[in-house]
Amino acid sequence: MNKQYVLILITYLAMQFSSFIGIPLIYQIGVGIGVTESDMELLAPSYWIVFSFSITFVLTMIWIRRSERLTRLERETPADLSVTVLWAIIGVFMAFFAQLIAITIESFLGIEQGSENTEMIIQLIETFPLVVLVSSIFGPVLEEIVFRKIIFGTLYNRYSFFISALISSFIFAIAHMELEHLLLYAAMGFTFAFLYVQTKRIIVPIFAHVTMNTLVVLAQLFLER
Q1: Which of 68, 76, 116, 143 is catalytic?
Q2: Active-site residue among 41, 74, 176, 178?
Q3: What are the strands, taking DSSP E only, across 2-94?
Q4: Burial zone of 9 (CB within 10 Å; 0-12 exposed, 13-18 middle, 19+ buried)
Q5: Which of 34, 103, 185, 218 is the one with CA 20 to 30 A from 191?
Q6: Is the pLDDT confidence value at 149 over 60?
């Protein structure tokens, strides 16, 4: 794994754990300048998630441009523009279909539906609308670079698609810290890995992921409230 990929992984992990320090810090700063404690309890997580994801996104974009093309997928010829656009559109429907199948299986197993992560994001967006940039752009792009381009791509150098997608998808699922929905997130991971392999272009799973997240957030904000 090249140096830039290692830097991206370290930065992504640091961002995930930064809230333990960042949110209390923002809270204290806000209270110190006269914002009420009750307001800062809502604002501090929103401000920090936007700040931390923005910094990580910028650094990741810089390092990904400088990285060498070392993985098997990066060395293969990517799909042409028309095929790329077609798979990007199909990929959105595939993502929702995979999600539907996973939800159906979870319901059959008696797993309660609804995502705490999604609910939390909606609350943060309602408090500070710029959080939508994290849920719809920064988050999906970073996840595709980390879990598909780097982790899946590195595994795919040595293993079959199924093994590589299985491992990377379960890492992706565990990272969301909702173990009851492990199957749901793993199904998403498998779908995005498939799109990446089919086109050899990371932009395709990024497009599907961004579109899916955006539609889910819009539905939660305007249709289910």
Answers
A1: 143
A2: 176
A3: none
A4: middle
A5: 218
A6: yes
